[in-house]
Amino acid sequence: MCVEMVFVDAQGTKIQGSIRKDIIRMKKLVMEEGHAYEISRVMVVPNEGPDRPTHHAFRLVFDIHSKVVLHERYPLLSLGLSLLATVDVTRIKNERPYETKFLVDKVGMLTSVSSERQYLKENKEINVGKTECVLHGTYVDQLNQYLKKNGTLTPIIVIQFAHVSTTT
To answer: What pTM, to 2 d.p., does this model score?
Structure first.
């Protein structure tokens, strides 16, 4: 079993990292989101397979010799947003049909809130020029609270690491 994560460098480039849980326990490794770290002695391997959280050609694999040092004096300068247009998401889905899951960053204006639905034409899902997003868990509660409090405003939504499924 591994812990999977996404690292963002100073230029905003994202790369996937994997650490086996037994190594985390042995090294008493603690890494927190939003902090800067210096990482060394990691393996760099091709980023292959159907589940790729980043589009980087490589990923990092930590082992017993890997070093991770917290840098409190270096604040994160970038949130690592790599915004993609809907047409680019569609292009990636078409170019990489073997990737059943990948993550993207999206920004958009909330135009409607509804229950689950599907657009079909001749039993095939059709693109209506919009990106639909399904929220789960506490994200639904947060959005509902915001809409209740700010009902007349049109919110701009930014979603980082949105899961895009290429399967129907």
So the answer is: 0.60
